[in-house]
Amino acid sequence: MSRKNRWGFLIFAAALLGGCASGPDFKPPTAPTVMRYTETPMPGQTAAVSTDTHGGAAQQFVIGEMEDLLRGEPWWALFQNAALNQLIEQALASNPTLAEAEARLRQAQEEYLARAGATRYPSVDFNASAARQQVDFVTMGMTTMPRPSPFTLYNVSVGVSYTFDWFGANARALEGLQAATEIKSYQLEAARLTLAASVAATAVREASLREQIDVLNAMIAAQQKQLTILEARRALGGVSDVDVQNVKSVLADHQARLPPLQRLLYSTRHQLALCLGQTPSEAALPLFHLADLQLPETLPLTIPSELARQRPDIRAAEAMLHQASANVGVATANLYPRLTLSGGFGSAALSGEKLFAEGFNLWNLGAGIAQPLFRGGELQAYKRAAEAAFDAAAAGYRQVVLQGFQNVADALRALETDALTLKARSVAADEALATYRLMEARYRLGGVDQWTVLEAERRSLEARLAQIQSTADRYANTVALFQAMGTGVAKELNPIAPQ
C-alpha cells in the first residue's frame, strides 16, 4: 500500500471511530403512571357560594391539553381585567430577572457554538512575520568573510490541526452543552411563569387589602359618628361615662388595625413596581379591586402523565439529567486514546524576493496519538464522580416531579376548601350584618344599650373582613393552580372529575 493510500485509510478509519460515543445514550425518564393528583378523587367542581356573592361561583375542573384550551390567550386573561393583562405584559417585557435569564441563555448558546466550531472542524491558523536581521560572521569566527548588509526576512505560513473524536469525547461534550442551553431555556420559561403568577397574586393581594381598608374606614367613620352622638347624650345625662369609654376603646382598636393594613398595601404596590423593573416612585401602577376581577369558572387540568412534559422546572431537571449523562460519556472517553493530525505550509523570503517563488518553502505533516497510561487513578475517579453526579441528577429529577405533583394537589385541595370556607364565611357575614341592623333598630327603640350595638357592629366587621380574605384566597389559589400546571387557559369542555 502506497504512503498516500495509507494516509487515506488512516483518516477513513479515524472518521469511523469518531462516530462511536462512549458512555450511556440518554433516554428521557418514564412519565409517571399515576391516575390522579390527590389521594382521593376530586369532585368535578367546587361548591358554589351564592349568585349575589362576588367570586362565589362554582369552579369546574376539565381535563385537556393546555394548548387546546388556550385559545390564543394567556391564562391571566381569564380574570378579565385589562389593567392586570397590561401589567403582566409590561413585567414580562421589562423585568431585570428575565433579562438576566435571557442573557444567560444567549451565553449558553454561544458557548455551545464555540465548542462545536472548535471540535467539529479542523483549526486553521495563518501566521505572518517580518524581521530585520544582521549577520556578523566575525562573532562566528569567520574573520575572512565579508560583512553583509542588514536584510529583512519575511515568513508566511498556514497551519492545520484536527483531533479525531475516536470515542466520542467531543460529541458527548457538545451533547452536554446542548443540554445546558435547554436548561437555561426552561429556566427562562419558568421565570416568566413565576413572574406572571407573582404579578397576578400580588394584584389580588392588593385588591383584598384595599377592600379591607375601605371596610375598616367605613366602620371607623360610623363609630366616630356614634361617639359624637353618645358624648352629646352623656352631656344631657342620658348615658354614663362607662358607655362612652367603651365606644372609645372599640374605636381605638379599629383605628390601630388600620396602619398595618396600609403598610401591607404599600409593600404590595412596591412589589408590583419591582416586578416591572421600576422604582416605587416612578411606577405608574393601576388600582386593583376584587370587584374588577372575574373569578375563572373553568379550570383546565393536564393529565398527570403529561405534567412532566409541561412544567418548565421538570423539563429543566430532565435537561440537567441529560447533561449529567453526557458528562459520564466524556469521562469514559477520556480513558481512551486520541489521534491528532496536523500539517502546515509556509514560505520565507528575503527583501526583494517573492514569497512562494524565489524564497524557500516549508511544509510539515504529522500525526500524534495520546493514550493515558498512568494517572494515579485520576481518570477512573472522574468517571465514577460523573456517574455519581448522574445518580444525583436522577434523584433530583424525581424530587422535582414529586414537588410538581404536590403543587397541583395542594392547589386543587385549596380551591375545594376555599369554596367551602367562603360559603361559610359569607353566611356568617350575612348573619352578622343582619344582627347588627337588628340591634341598631332595637337601640333606636330603647331595647338594647349602646355597647350591644357596638359589639354587633364589631362582629359584623370581623365577619366581612374574613369574607374578603376568603374571596381573595380563591383568586390567589386559582393563580397557584395555573402556575402549578405550568400554564393555564380556559375552554368550554364537558367538565369531568380530575384524576
What does it look like?
The chain has 499 residues and is α+β, with helices and mostly antiparallel strands. The chain has a single domain (24-139, 148-485), classed as Outer membrane efflux proteins (OEP), CATH 1.20.1600. The chain is 58% helix and 11% strand. The protein has helices spanning 3-18, 66-70, 82-94, 96-120, 169-235, 241-275, 304-307, 312-333, 378-444, 450-485, and strands spanning 60-63, 123-133, 151-164, 298-301, 338-350, 360-370. The strands form two sheets. A four-stranded antiparallel β-sheet has the order 2-3-5-6. A two-stranded parallel ribbon has the order 1-4. The relative contact order is 0.18.
Secondary structure layout:
Layout: H1 3-18, E1 60-63, H2 66-70, H3 82-94, H4 96-120, E2 123-133, E3 151-164, H5 169-235, H6 241-275, E4 298-301, H7 304-307, H8 312-333, E5 338-350, E6 360-370, H9 378-444, H10 450-485
Parallel strand pairs: 1-4
Antiparallel strand pairs: 2-3, 3-5, 5-6
Helix pairs in contact: 3-5, 4-5, 5-6, 5-8, 5-10, 6-10, 8-9, 9-10
